[in-house]
Amino acid sequence: MKLIKKLTLFSLFLGSTVMAAETDTIKKNLEKAFDINIESVEPTKYPNIYEVVTDETILYTDKAGTYILAGNLIDTQSKVDLTETKIKQLSLKDIEALPLNKAIKRVNGNGERKIITFEDPNCHYCKRLYGELDKIDNASIYTFIVPILGRDSVKKANNIWCSSDPNVTWANWMHKGETPESAKECDAPIPDALAVSRKFQMRGTPMILLGNGERFNGFVNASMIEEALKK
């Protein structure tokens, strides 16, 4: 029995050592080939497919890192999108580290629930979302302004942040349609917002993150957000 126990422990140790060597090889090869920052490498439950989490996205590769696949990995039996599941797990962890001082903030009620949005000032659906978020009580809403729709979006984003009261200027534009006045240049946190959007793999605006890790890629109404907040 002692021999069997020792052999079992040795096989577990050997297996973990081999796995560590494989993940190190993957990390080394991919970082060298693509100049990317890899945060973790883990084997999936599928043969010779490894999950690679970078500071901007999730990729898949083989045990030698000889190729990469970019896209969502979906289990055909369970119909579960494993990539989205992983993104939610990472989102829940990363939400706590968000630089919320780089976001526009408004508070409804006691503000106990957390909602984070990523919006372009010229995004039609973002303007619709503004009204929907007004319907959600007891929530702190943080908006990262991500001007991805062209030069005018960048101009508006800067004018909003560099105004005397960015929160009011943002509200007046998104809710009332009052064009932000030209403002002197300032240290607007737009690069920070764009970096955060890449971290959370934003595909377009609006994107919505909730404090419980739930997320929406695109416009949804207040009732859908309320349901997600209950999870």
From TrEMBL:
Q: Where in the cell is it found?
A: Periplasm
- Whether Disulfide bond counts among this entry's keywords is yes
Q: What is this protein called?
A: Thiol:disulfide interchange protein
The alphabetized UniProt keywords are: Disulfide bond, Periplasm, Redox-active center, Signal
UniProt domain Disulphide bond isomerase DsbC/G N-terminal: residue ranges:
20-84
The record's annotation in PANTHER family points to:
THIOL:DISULFIDE INTERCHANGE PROTEIN DSBC, THIOL:DISULFIDE INTERCHANGE PROTEIN DSBC-RELATED
What is its biological role?
A: Required for disulfide bond formation in some periplasmic proteins. Acts by transferring its disulfide bond to other proteins and is reduced in the process.
- Protein family per UniProt: Belongs to the thioredoxin family. DsbC subfamily.
State the organism's lineage: Bacteria, Pseudomonadati, Pseudomonadota, Betaproteobacteria, Burkholderiales
